[in-house]
């Protein structure tokens, strides 16, 4: 079992930090950095899955916080929607984690895979989607839809996890009508809340040694750098750039979930 930074060789540590930077960049642009960061942690000799999950959340919360602050300063997303959505998502993440203890995530993966493939195709064949903000609902109905999305995606984050930020962007663009840039800005605030909720759960309730603080803080520093660079690049290059990165990350997420569904079906 890995106990901290001192048990890692320099090459492994360098690869983990590089993965952390890449994950921070991906998370800042469209979400889905966990698709890179979590497998990198799981590849560390001696690390347990629970240690990898907990340490991944510690690193990610630094990156999502940095990118959320960067977006807030440059894009100025409407916090009247983002903050209630984040609060509901945090509660949803706790609910998902509770369900995960009694119901395997494999039950939900085929449904999620079908949904993400459908939305990816819909986005790919609608070039104008997400170029401009065209809200489908107003007032209380808009807030209710945003909070409902936050609850569902928060639940997913607690239950399964990978691609949470991407699912938030999917919902905000195709479901509510935001442009990609505005959706990414709001998604970072909500994703920061779900990461923080999971981190508190691991820090307070998990057995000692589950959270690898040294490795997690090193990962967090790399995430912060990647998140800052990614958020600034997304703001500078705009909706078209975010759309293409989004499609690439969603394709990887679909393959990842497809492999999981296939292998679990064979098992």
TrEMBL record:
Coarse class of the protein's main subcellular location: membrane
Alphabetized UniProt keyword annotations: Cell membrane, Membrane, Transmembrane, Transmembrane helix, Transport
Localization annotation: Cell membrane
Ranges annotated as spanning the membrane: 12-36, 82-101, 107-125, 137-156, 162-181, 188-205, 211-229, 241-259
Membrane topology term: Multi-pass membrane protein
Pfam families, A to Z: TauE
InterPro entries: TM_pro_TauE-like (IPR002781), TSUP (IPR052017)
PANTHER family recorded: MEMBRANE TRANSPORTER PROTEIN YFCA-RELATED, TRANSMEMBRANE PROTEIN YFCA
Family of the protein in this entry: Belongs to the 4-toluene sulfonate uptake permease (TSUP) (TC 2.A.102) family.
Record protein name field: Probable membrane transporter protein
Species whose genome carries this gene: Sinomonas halotolerans
